[in-house]
Structure formats: C-alpha cells, structure tokens
Amino acid sequence: MNDDALLTAVRETFAGVRMDTPPEQIVRRGHAVRARRRLPRVAGTVAVAAGTAVAVTALLPASHQPGAHLAAWTVARQGDDAILVTIRQLTDPAGLQRTLRADGVRATVTFDDQQNPACRNYSRPSSALTNSVIGMSLGNRELTLVIHPSALPADAGVQISAGRLEHPKQGGIAIGLGFGLVQASAECTGS
C-alpha cells in the first residue's frame, strides 16, 4: 500500500464523522481545564515566593543584596551575565523597566495589556535569535525569564508584557507572561 492509498483509506474511514461542538467551545474548555490544574500550583508558588522574597530581604543587609528584590518581582544578575526576572504580581512595570535598563537591558515592560505604542516588532525576527536573547526557566516552582543582554543585537530591545488571566469558574487569577524582541528606540526601549 502506498501513501496515497493509505491516506484514501483513512479519509474514507472518517468520512461520516462530524463535529457538532464549535471549535471555540473546545478551546475554552481546554483553557478552563488547564487553568484548574494550574491554579493550586500558582497560588502556592506565589505564597512561597512572596515569603522567600520577604525573608531574603529581611535577612540580608541592604548593601549586600545580589539584585533588586520586591514582593512584586525580582531581578538578579547571574555570574554568566544572564539576568533572571521573576514576576509575581502585576505592580510597578515602570520600576521593573528601570531596573532592567540599569542592568544594561534595552527593555520595555507593560502589564495588563497596556502596550507601548512607540514599540515596533523587530525587523529581523527569528526564533533562534529570540531564544538566544530571552527564554524561560522553571526553577523552585517559579517561572523566571532569563535574559542574555550580550546576545541582544544593537538595534533590538526586549519586550515583556504580563497580564492577569482570570478563571471565572474557579474565581482565581494567574499571571500570563509574554516576551519578544522589538526595534530599539529611545521611546520604546530607552536607547
């Protein structure tokens, strides 16, 4: 049996099968199921992370802290010049943006889908380039962005956008996080 004959046989087997459920309903159901599974972990992670951030901030002297630590988000530079960004609450995007820029990252940060109108998509995007500049890490049950400023092209900047994902059936809220590359400009990324 060749490929064409196999495709025809499979197509004929499913010829009478019809879907009565609209695709939008299937997608909504899938999102709701994943949200229900994720919600207890998110709530636990936020509680543990907030407690850890407060404990670390209280225990370390101010002059010896390895990065900026806030209850809402954390920025920490690693030995390999990678910058780790963990967002726990959607507060003070301007503060996070200032901190990233102070660490040498051309960045724009927005929360709750309030995009910066001055930003334009990067003109030469590729998934390989984006992945070399910014990625995600799941450590200690926290989602953390990993930014490599040295891999950022001279005409590009990092865009971070986060928003609340509400789950009406569960009554809970999670943080949705998006990132990518934008054209660097004074109005968008600070340089």
Give a description of the structure.
- The chain has 191 residues and is α+β, with helices and mostly antiparallel strands.
- It has one domain.
- The chain is built from four helices and eight strands; from the N terminus they run ααβββαβαββββ.
- The strands form two sheets. It has a five-stranded antiparallel β-sheet, sandwiched between helices.
- The longest helix has 37 residues.
- About 13% of the residues have low confidence.
Highlighted features:
191 residues; three-stranded mixed beta sheet
How would you summarize what this structure contains?
Helices cover 34% and strands 28% of the residues. The chain has 191 residues and is of the alpha+beta class.
What is the arithmetic mean of pLDDT?
76
Question: Into how many domains do the coordinates divide?
Answer: 1
Question: What is the total tally of β strands?
Answer: 8
* Element-by-element helix/strand order: HHEEEHEHEEEE
Cα separation of the termini: 61 Å
Q: Biggest sheet, open or closed, and with what strands and sense?
A: 5 strands, antiparallel
Please, how many helices?
Answer: 4
Proportion of β residues? 25-35%
Q: What is the helical fraction, as a range of percent?
A: 25-40%
Principal-axis shape: extended
- Computed over alpha carbons, the radius of gyration is 21 Å
